[in-house]
Amino acid sequence: xxxxxxxxxxxxxxxxxxxxxxxxxxxxxxxxxxxxxxxxxxxxxxxxxxxxxxxxxxxxxxxxxxxxxxxxxxxxxxxxxxxxxxxxxxxxxxxxxxxxxxxxxxxxxxxxxxxxxxxxxxxxxxxxxxxxxxxxxxxxxxxxxxxxxxxxxxxxxxxxxxxxxxxxxxxxxxxxxxxxxxxxxxxxxxxxxxxxxxxxxxxxxxxxxxxxxxxxxxxxxxxxxxxxxxxxxxxxxxxxxxxxxxxxxxxxxxxxxxxxxxxxxxxxxxxxxxxxxxxxxxxxxxxxxxxxxxxxxxxxxxxxxxxxxxxxxxxxxxxxxxxxxxxxxxxxxxxxxxxxxxxxxxxxxxxxxxxxxxxxxxxxxxxxxxxxxxxxxxxxxxxxxxxxxxxxxxxxxxxxxxxxxxxxxxxxxxxxxxxxxxxxxxxxxxxxxxxxxxxxxxxxxxxxxxxxxxxxxxxxxxxxxxxxxxxxxxxxxxxxxxxxxxxxxxxxxxxxxxxxxxxxxxxxxxxxxxxxxxxxxxxxxxxxxxxxxxxxxxxxxxxxxxxxxxxxxxxxxxxxx
Length: 561
Prior knowledge:
With 561 residues, this protein is mainly alpha-helical. It contains 27 helices and 12 strands. The strands form 6 sheets. A two-stranded antiparallel sheet has the order 1-2. Strands 3-4 form a two-stranded antiparallel ribbon. The termini are far apart.
């Protein structure tokens, strides 16, 4: 194809101020050719493809190919299709699963994403899923279905809301189970786990993080065709690293949306000085947490050349040159600032053989990751840590058990007092506890202070050999660090599982007595707690090789070994 272009047998198109030539896009066996609407060029392309097939042994299937025109009459396009023996396709086209020529600002553009999520939910309607199972499916599947589109296009706010509504309804209702209470607000659910959420994140935040990948790749892939096209159309940023972010037109190109991410992206990029030739001394962030023009604004104002590089100012050898190029003599206060500046930079050493580079400050490796960008975008203003998070999510208990404990820790599980507030029109008795036939079913009562529950907690602490005073609230129970079964990996693992299993068994027993009118004694409940805790612990790496029967008989001995 290169020889064909050189000899004018085929011709692509030129783009931008640099007249960058684009003639084909190719990924594996999916190829797009660009050429003028000329019968001669089309015949030449067909001959080239047939010759390629004979030489390589790869047959070009023209019947599966298509031709599309830009500002070309339908009659001419049909004639070209007859010559090429292929069909005519209309815009937008689908290439590598993404639409070419579509407008991401229209709702219809996002229909494939919404339909794919709907189809996936339809496939789960007949499947029994616990809350923990639904959380896992949202984290591993539903949240990532739109990622391919989100990695290139800015999502509409209405589409993002629709996707989150589908996730929200599935989380609290399950597929095909009818509408249920949304126990915890979605803006809390979508927060990172350490802030009390489930780590789903907002779809719009995930979109920004994925688009930020292109800003990171742009200066690192200077030889790529896409880099050359973007630089040719929009120009380069004054900092010499990025593309021009002042994009006033789009032509339905996604770069305008990507450029808008720069304001969120740039604070986390740090420049590392090598030879100092590409880093601007005053205006780039290469020393500390502020640019030098911000820290020493009075000095910056009196410099005659603003865009000097680090090497221009400091020189390439030691001692440093200090070529500031001030346009007048400095005042006494400015001299003090200059002394402070020179002192702060006295340890800087340039490496003439090492090029300047930039690193991602949110990663220990210095390399950009979508996850790190997504997490920092998801941080809420004035965040309040969710103290039980570490105990809950580090546990090896099943997801359904941890999910229940998470709802309980937020104080949102449907105990009688909560149901009375949510459904005041129903005949409920908020002061009735089904476990001990007495007054007061609240969250702290049911899971901590109820005589039945507190008896189970006493058995657990007695088994661990601890003297225990019940805390004021259930959240305090999860926050207080109890040594439990010791500080060994086995002891910590089994203690966390046992505490959450007790909560799960209490909730199961409460529901059995209400809905099935079946009750079990405290001794049976304790035996079940021992069994399930031992069973789930035996499946972890900490208890690998320990038979379930041995673990169930003597927790303390196994944890001490």
